[in-house]
Design brief:
mainly alpha
Length: 92
């Protein structure tokens, strides 16, 4: 009985820990070659150079370029006036 119970606990533990990983892997659609090339071109325009992968600052340079690309994408996708500040309507 103890052996069966410990086996069930092991199976439950494995199911709980690997379940989210399996679900997450199914959510992401595979990227096309054109998408990967476009992402790499955007990173290169932001200052990342793949040839420098042996550079000790490689991960930091890549992360900085990714942040720069992400910032550019958010500024180009936003439209309209800024919502910062305050406004009042009506009159007294």
């Amino acid at each position: 009985m103890k052996r069966l119970l410990s086996g069930l606990m092991l199976a439950l533990t494995i199911a709980v820990t690997t379940g989210p990983v399996i679900v997450r892997a199914q959510d992401a659609a595979p990227k096309t070659r054109a998408q990967v090339n476009a992402e790499l071109a955007a990173l290169e325009r932001a200052g990342y150079h793949p040839a420098y992968s042996q550079d000790p600052d490689y991960p930091y340079n890549l992360q900085a370029a990714e942040r720069k690309v992400a910032a550019e994408q958010t500024t180009t996708t936003q439209y309209g006036s800024s919502t910062s500040g305050s406004s009042a309507s009506g009159s007294r």
